[in-house]
């Protein structure tokens, strides 16, 4: 796991401490995504294929998972389907990554249970948008009840 001391996230979209798992057999993709997300103080861990990712998911308990579709041993579709079939992990957003963007690939990702599909090469904004669309709402939801309780207790 890597974290960064820099905090470049906008104040209304703080990602500090967000746990992100990136699963890809490309070392370049892993390093690039890890570097981009570490700038926002995300805790990032990586796996080189779906088979390696499964025990990492159990130990790391990520808030969001990015998975390449084409990998050795256990591909992204199979990995996503296994995650979504497990009651302990099915609510973790899974974002599929691929250089293929055909209708068949999109449909196959949806059937496996993916929450979104990003086409490679992706940008910093693509990664952040996926995170904000699928995780930022949960962060706000978790914080709001604490604020309400504190306000109610202070009256």
From TrEMBL:
Assigned keywords, A-Z: Phosphoprotein, Two-component regulatory system
Superkingdom in the source lineage: Bacteria
Domain Response regulatory positions: 19-135
Claim: Magnesium is one of the keywords in the record: no
Cited PROSITE patterns: RESPONSE_REGULATORY
Gene3D superfamilies hit by this protein: 3.40.50.2300
InterPro entries registered for this protein in UniProt: Bact_response_regulator, CheY-like_superfamily, Sig_transdc_resp-reg_receiver
Positions of post-translational 4-aspartylphosphate modification: 68
Gene Ontology biological process terms from the UniProt entry: phosphorelay signal transduction system
The protein's name: Twitching motility protein PilG
Organism: uncultured Thiotrichaceae bacterium
